[in-house]
Amino acid sequence: MREFDYRRADDVTGAVALLDADPDARYLGGGTNLVDLMKNGVETPARLVDVRSLPLDRIEAGDDGSVRIGATVTNSDLAAHPLIRDHYPALTQAVLAGASGQLRNMATVGGNLLQRTRCGYFTDITRPCNKREPGSGCPAIEGEHHNHAVLGASEHCVAVHPSDMGVALTAFDAVVSWRTADGAGEAPLNDFYLPVGDTPHRETVLPAGALITHVTLPPARVAARSRYRKVRERASYAFAIGSVAAALEVADGVVCDARLALGAVASRPWRARLAERILVGAPATPEYFTAAADAELAAARPLPHNGYKVTLLRNLVVAVLTELAEETSR
Amino acid sequence: MTPPTSSSTVTLNINGEKHTLTVDHRTTLLDALRDRLDLTGTKKGCDHGQCGACTVLVDGRRTVSCLQLAVASEDRDITTVEGVAEGDRLHPVQQAFLDLDGFQCGYCTPGQICSAVAVIEEHAAGWPSAVTADVRPEAGPPPLTTEEIKERMSGNLCRCGAYGQIAQAVARAAAEASTEKLTEETAV
């Protein structure tokens, strides 16, 4: 590991100043991804700015029913918070479906959104990878890609975003806020991640040196009846091979509001807007749920070894929506 | 800004004792415990946060010490497996692991024990888990079934496969803790 300077920041302005938009410096949150990537040699920062002592560790309800989540709130505290469990249960479920109890105690909300892909070529510095080393190539396309993207990928990168939390936040229209030396900025999570295109190394719209300060969940009545379901290769403590965050509101057998996002299918949490449009106003039956899932997944371009994901996601969407519809009608 | 340095002098509060040492910033809490402070109860397994062998408690929360930098651990209360007992009286989790054979080779055991101590507290605080059917607060805390214990302990791998006995040991220690709490409450 490269030697590095270490600074602990006491306030947001100080943290931003300490990082100084230096491309060779990184903010340190829980470190569960960054420290690991430093051990692997993927990340080689010259300076770490520790942001864990910043006063960004609170979850607060807004007057309008929104919820503001500080960037250094840990995954554990987010999942256990009564407001989240009550109004956005799929977010609690998504967080609890990720990592382990130990990692959830360390990991932070800001870091979760900025964590890097677990693609084996990205984390192995002896292999080419366009995300890690632009222009070096993508061995996954011809190689090991059974858990890679089926939506929104490009010939330059087929890696998936590993977050569970992000899938639920995307479904619920979360807004990411940040600070730079020039001031504050924000973007809906749906627009936060950049398209892969030929620049897979550029992942988000964050300006240089930006520090995520908080994530805001707008009020959404539909989110109170929501669910996150994750499929993985073992029962616990593994990344998803496919996941769904869904919320559904049904009146007289007809869907009046729906939220749907898919995980482990793309370089970002995938908001299924096409499916949502088909669902709203349609009868809340498995036939229509299937039609909505198929419409969303029609854009899928699977590789030779990950075509199973299309079927898996479709079945997952139908199953989760059917469960939610049954709950609603009870 | 002061010039960059690659090491710092830190004071770590471990098992109630303060230790001041100069650490290379690259040193993990795990390596500081084992190599600098001779607290070798905490074990190094994968060194990548995937096995749980290095689990310690930081401010009461279970943490994998292999991904926690020592320099970032100042001003935190750290408890290792050496610190969970009260003098000669084993922690109920330690006693249950002994009584119910919650291990075979023992390498993962310190991490399992630290994790279990925290699992019992997390459950007592009402935290749901990934297998909790209804996470809404009004549903109340789920009973600590074997399924709940297995999910909550899934961050600790046991290559010998002593999982059955580990789950039993955690269940017994949790039951003792809740009985003790009940007795204390009744006494008050």
TrEMBL record, chain B:
Residue ranges of every copy of the 2Fe-2S ferredoxin-type domain listed in the record: 8-84
Keywords for the protein's UniProt record, in alphabetical order: Iron, Metal-binding, Oxidoreductase
Transmembrane segment boundaries: none
Gene3D superfamilies reported in the protein's UniProt record: 3.10.20.30, [2Fe-2S]-binding domain (1.10.150.120)
InterPro entries tied to this protein: 2Fe-2S-bd (IPR002888), 2Fe-2S-bd_dom_sf (IPR036884), 2Fe-2S_ferredoxin-like_sf (IPR036010), 2Fe-2S_ferredoxin-type (IPR001041), 2Fe2S_fd_BS (IPR006058), Aldehyde_Oxdr_Iron-Sulfur (IPR052914), Beta-grasp_dom_sf (IPR012675)
Protein name according to UniProt: (2Fe-2S)-binding protein
Source organism: Streptomyces griseorubens
